[in-house]
């Protein structure tokens, strides 16, 4: 059996390499880290969670929760690491990002079938089995090579939220509560009165932003807009978005506006600003975010940054197995394939690892079907509009519909999906 080259050791690459290795496939896992860092990365370990430390909702009431359930049934390595490093975060799967990346890296290094190579990949042999997992920021030389294959290059801009030291928060202007009304240290709510909010909004929309390169047009992913871009749509947009006080009350009184902080680790020594992805300059972040009363004396452990994410036009170039249509020995997984989100990237890596193994064994590839979240992701890539393709998170609308009332429909979708996964599990 041929050796497989996996390019990139992020969430997708880590999952993909592990799935191949446990099936006896020899893997060269190639990553630029820690020899070099891209603008999006700061951790020397693999599977770095760049934007948030939350893998989103983990209940079966949401499609992202069902996707996690499917991955657990199929023994997802990366999700297992997430479960081992999680801490209480309401209904979300929230992990200690440092412990998580370290655990993934250690376990990959323990695998006898995985050879880790630290270097920048500039190109690859189109005749060899390769899985490209080079998101979220594919290096320019590799991007140019991929563009030479596909004939076009797509991208959008993604942004990262700041992290603040817990000791530096002024708790006189806060209260602990999640949006289900439960009092918990998982979330700190920073209160803004009406005048404070509008002063903050005015400064936010006029604050200095980091200038992009002249040849780049800013294209943002709608689900991860910088806070200042949201604010430019109007103050009320913030009040209905990141600063909405819905479900929250301090001593029985609903605040006018709330900036919610989510804990970064089990020690509760740091918090990230929920929904505060930003492209403001560092001095402006300190100044404007310092207008939030609870953060007037904040110690910023990390300030927000914006980075370019590269993805290919999947409907034009990939099939629902994540294979390049012109070279079926080449697969793309993770954000570069056109999926969006941590769990979605893990899912694409798992599917590519399973199906590349079968491809090398001359076995039929596993079609997960649009009855499952896994299969729905692959179908979304293949069946999307190539003239206006944008990455998308998993959602119920991507699955094959069931004609039932809403209160019954989601339960039926979950049952059908997990039954399908149980059938496929016998084949893998």
Please give a structural write-up.
The chain is an alpha+beta fold and 428 residues long. The protein has two domains: 4-155 and 308-425, FAD/NAD(P)-binding domain (3-Layer(bba) Sandwich); 163-304, no CATH class. Helix content is 33%, strand content 17%. The protein has 13 helices and 17 strands. The strands form four sheets. A six-stranded mixed sheet has the order 6-2-1-7-17-16, with helices on one face. It has a six-stranded antiparallel sheet with strand order 10-11-12-13-9-14. A three-stranded antiparallel sheet has the order 3-5-4. A hairpin with a 4-residue loop joins strand 4 (86-87) and strand 5. The longest helix is centred in the last third of the chain and has 20 residues, at 406-425. The mean pLDDT is 89.
């Amino acid at each position: 059996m041929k050796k497989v080259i996996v390019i990139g050791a992020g969430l997708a690459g880590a999952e993909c390499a592990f799935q191949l290795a446990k099936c006896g496939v020899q893997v060269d896992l190639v990553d630029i880290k820690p020899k070099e860092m891209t603008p999006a990365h700061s951790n020397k370990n693999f599977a770095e969670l760049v934007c948030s430390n939350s893998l989103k909702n983990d209940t079966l009431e949401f499609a992202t929760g069902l996707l996690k359930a499917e991955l657990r049934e199929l023994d997802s390595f990366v999700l297992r690491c997430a479960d081992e490093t999680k801490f209480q975060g309401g209904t979300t799967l929230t992990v200690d990002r440092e412990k998580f990346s370290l655990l993934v890296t250690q376990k990959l290094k323990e695998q006898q079938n995985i050879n880790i190579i630290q270097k920048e990949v500039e190109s690859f042999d189109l005749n060899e089995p390769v899985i490209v997992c080079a998101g979220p920021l594919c290096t320019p030389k590799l991007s140019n090579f991929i563009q030479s294959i596909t004939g076009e290059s797509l991208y959008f801009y993604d942004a990262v939220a700041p992290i603040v030291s817990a000791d530096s928060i002024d708790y006189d202007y806060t209260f602990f509560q999640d949006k289900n009304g439960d009092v918990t240290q998982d979330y700190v709510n920073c209160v803004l009165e009406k005048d404070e909010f509008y002063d903050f909004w005015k400064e936010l929309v006029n604050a200095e932003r980091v200038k992009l390169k002249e040849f780049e047009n800013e294209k943002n992913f709608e689900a991860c807009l910088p806070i200042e871009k949201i604010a430019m749509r109007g103050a009320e947009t913030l009040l209905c978005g990141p600063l909405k006080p819905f479900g929250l009350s301090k001593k029985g009184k609903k605040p006018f506006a709330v900036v919610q902080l989510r804990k970064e680790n089990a020690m509760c020594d740091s918090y990230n600003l929920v929904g505060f992805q930003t492209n403001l300059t560092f001095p402006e972040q300190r100044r404007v975010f310092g207008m939030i009363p609870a953060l007037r004396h904040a110690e910023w452990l990390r300030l927000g940054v914006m980075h370019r994410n590269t993805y290919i036009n999947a409907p034009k170039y990939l099939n629902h197995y994540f294979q390049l249509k012109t070279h079926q020995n080449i697969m793309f997984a993770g954000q570069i394939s056109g999926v969006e989100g941590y769990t979605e990237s893990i899912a694409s890596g798992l599917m590519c690892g399973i199906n590349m193994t079968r491809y090398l064994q001359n076995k039929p590839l596993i079609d997960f079907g649009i009855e499952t979240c896994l299969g729905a992701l692959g179908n979304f890539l293949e069946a999307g509009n190539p003239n206006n393709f944008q990455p998308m998170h998993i959602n119920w609308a991507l699955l094959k519909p069931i004609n039932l009332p809403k209160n019954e429909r989601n339960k039926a979708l979950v049952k059908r999906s997990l039954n399908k996964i149980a059938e496929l599990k016998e084949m893998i």
